[in-house]
Amino acid sequence: MILGRVCFTERETMGFWTLMEGLLLFANALAILNEDRFLAPKGWTLAELHQTGKRNSLKGQIVGLIHACQYMRLPLMLFNLIVIVFKLFSG
Q1: Which of 21, 47, 69, 73 could form a disulfide with 30 if both were Cys (CB 3.0 to 4.6 A apart)?
Q2: C-alpha 46: how far from its chain's center?
Q3: Quick one: angle between helices 73-90 and 16-31, nearest 10?
Q4: CA–CA distance from 39 to each of 12, 35, 57, 62 (Å)?
Q5: What confidence tens digit (pLDDT) does each residue in 17-44 have?
């Protein structure tokens, strides 16, 4: 650090790959949420949203995203495997 300037190396800056890894971790976090134990007691189920008619609200969009991530678990697992193999070979 010289005169208040911060010098970042190439490893410390956030690039496209780091952003993709973050999104992958976020998708993994959404995919493992259990509807019965976590979402249903808080009223965050698709069935409840269909009954109330609030599918287009922010809550409805978030619940839809959670269910989409849960539905796509197999492709998510394959993508995780690809990322792990890539990281093993690239370092």
Answers
A1: 69
A2: 19
A3: 140
A4: 36, 5, 17, 11
A5: 889 899 999 999 999 988 888 888 888 8
> What is the CB neighbour count within 10 angstroms for residue 66?
20
Q: Distance (Å, rounded) from C-alpha 31 to C-alpha 84? A: 18
Neighbours of 67 (CB within 10 A): 18
Q: What is the CB neighbour count within 10 angstroms for residue 63?
A: 21
- pLDDT band per the 50, 70, 90 thresholds, residue 3: low
Asked if 63 and 49 touch (Cβ cutoff 8 Å), the reply is: yes
Contact 67, 46 (CB under 8 A): yes
The structure's pTM equals: 0.71
Q: Environment class of residue 8 by beta-carbon count within 10 Å: exposed (0-12), middle (13-18) or buried (19+)?
A: exposed
Q: Quote the CA–CA distance of 9 and 38 in Å, as a whole number.
A: 41
